[in-house]
Amino acid sequence: MGLSAPLWDPTTFQVSLEQAKAQFASSQGKLFQARARIGTAKASVLTAQAQLDAAQVQFDNADRDYKRYQEVDERARSRQQLDNAFTARKSAWARLEQAKAQKTSAEANVASAEASVKAAQGELETSAASEKSAEVNLDYCKIYAPTEGRVTERTVEVGNYVSPG
To answer: Which of 84, 115, 131, 145 is 20–30 Å from 164 (CA)?
Structure first.
């Protein structure tokens, strides 16, 4: 196949191709980061579960203490001991609820990180298509003759628009 001079200046299309390649590389990086956030988010869920378990144990212990103080004859315990046991139980309950909320938040972060991966994958596919489009546009800057030959009569100049025939 013979190759003639460029139909028009390919510089703009070359720049577009380089931009598309850079966008593709950036999209790959974003996808990598999004995947890494999933691991971090899953680790946070494990941490939150451990905190929830510890808070549950503390609450169970405080609850048993409070119930024991309630069952003790009023003459054998002071009102302050009962109040302290009640306060400890209430405080342990609050820590338990906080731990549950933290675990729920950590689980939501996992879902969010997974959604970020899907978005990053879509962006990567879009940038790959843009790169392919830029390559095609750059190729349009060249005219390929179906056979080798010589131009004997030229009626157009570089930059003119032509039609088939």
So the answer is: 131
Percentage of the chain modeled with pLDDT above 70:
95
Rounded CA separation 141/12 (Å): 10
Q: Decide if pLDDT at 22 tops 50.
A: yes
Across 36-53, average pLDDT: 94
Number of Cβ within 10 Å of residue 153's Cβ equals: 4
Phi-psi region of 147 (alpha: psi -120 to 50; beta: other; left: phi over 0): beta
Cα within 13 Å of Cα(100), Cβ side: 8
Q: Report residue 125: phi and psi, to 5°.
A: -65, -40
Q: What is the pTM of this model?
A: 0.62
Neighbours of 150 (CB within 10 A): 5
